[in-house]
Amino acid sequence: MQENLTDALRALKTRTDALLASRVLTADHDWARSIGHAVSIQTAADDVVRAVVQQARRNGATWQTVGDALGVSRQAAFQRYGKPVDPRTGQPMNTTPLPGATELAASTVDDLASGQWTRVTEQFDPTMRDGLPEDALAAAWAQIIGLAGAYEGHGEPEAARAGDMTVTNTPLSFEAGDYTARITFRDDRTIAGLHILERQTP
User: Fold this and answer.
1) Which of 78, 82, 105, 190 has the most CB atoms less than 10 A away?
2) What b/e sequence results for 26-39 when a residue is b if at least 16 CB atoms lie within 10 Å of its CB, and e otherwise?
3) Is 153 exposed, middle or buried (0-12, 13-18, 19+ CB in 10 A)?
């Protein structure tokens, strides 16, 4: 609704005015307070973007149009600003990733790289535990090493909610190839899926 956008713009102006009123150019300034104001402006600005996206969608804009405007894919735009409805219940779906999912993913990758197979499989849900025992996990990692050389490190994981689970993607670097560790977590923090996928180079 137009009211949502108006409210978001008013909130942004109020927070911007608060930062300006704090006289950020003085030498003896309380910088921690100003940084807090700036963070609140960032949050308010995102609320404005969200309100404009919702208004655009109500007026027929496609997710492709929204994604192009944001400089991301239509799927990324939908995952950030969409309001999917669960077809099983007719209720809005939870789109918030599991808190701490990126840290869990990074820790799991570190355990894989250091050969801590037991530590990894202890996080598996029952189905994963039955389907991928420690020796099979170790063999799968050895196969990647055989194809791409020694493991060199990982990048920052990304996380997104997919239905009842959170899917994380972590870039992996090896001597002779790049891969992605796709690890799926349940809300109880157990691992429901683990795949090492080759990244295609452009």
Assistant:
1) 105
2) eeeeeeeeeeebee
3) exposed
Task: Give this prediction's pTM.
Answer: 0.65
Could you give the maximum distance between any two Cα atoms of the chain, in Å? 64
- Residue 84 CB neighbours (<10 A): 13
Give the pLDDT confidence of 85-104 residue by residue, as tens digits: 878 888 888 778 999 999 99
Residue 148's alpha-carbon distances to 71, 134, 175, 183, 196, in angstroms, are 32, 21, 6, 20, 12
Is the dihedral angle over the CA atoms 89, 183, 143, 201 positive or is it negative? positive
Cβ neighbours around 77 below 10 Å, total: 22
SS3 13: helix
What's the number of CA atoms in the CB half-sphere (13 Å) around residue 29? 14
Sign of CA dihedral 27, 29, 32, 38: negative
- Residue 57: CB partners within 8 Å, gap ≥ 6? 63, 66
Q: Which residue has the tokens 């919702």?
A: 54
